[in-house]
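User: Could you go from structure to sequence for me? I need the amino acid at each position, not a summary. Structure tokens:
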């Protein structure tokens, strides 16, 4: 039996190579009512989505990942599931780079540190049946 979104906590996959930041964000999102999975690099993120994609409603990816960078992870996730809502985040993005990213991509970009309540609200809006229209 497949669970509907309304029957479970919304799921988020947080991808961040900074262990402390990843842990803090995971804890905070859990406190906001999210089922949280984490990955510390791009390959782990793709593996996590392949293994638990049915529990993941949205993915939040740091652009500054070593190896398979965040932009590439977002691209690979889009190939796996074109309908998967994804977001990017970064602590060290210049206004010019943020503007360029937003012009080239419809993926929302959040600047660290993030207001957790606002982030949670925006992500809920993105994954709600009304937000997906």
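Assistant: Here is the amino acid at each position, in order:
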């Amino acid at each position: 039996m497949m669970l509907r979104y309304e029957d479970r906590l919304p799921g988020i996959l947080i991808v961040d190579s900074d262990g402390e930041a990843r842990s803090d964000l995971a804890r905070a999102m859990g406190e906001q009512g999210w089922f949280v999975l984490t990955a510390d690099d791009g390959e782990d993120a793709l593996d996590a989505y392949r293994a638990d994609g049915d529990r993941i409603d949205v993915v939040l990816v740091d652009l500054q990942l070593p190896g398979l960078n965040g932009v590439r992870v977002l691209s690979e996730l889009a190939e796996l599931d074109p309908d998967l809502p994804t977001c990017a985040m970064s602590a060290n993005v210049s206004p010019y780079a943020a503007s360029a990213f937003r012009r080239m991509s419809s993926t929302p970009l959040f600047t660290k540190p993030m207001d957790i309540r606002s982030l949670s609200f925006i992500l809920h809006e993105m994954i709600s049946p009304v937000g997906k229209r």
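One structural detail worth keeping in mind: The chain has a mean pLDDT of 90.
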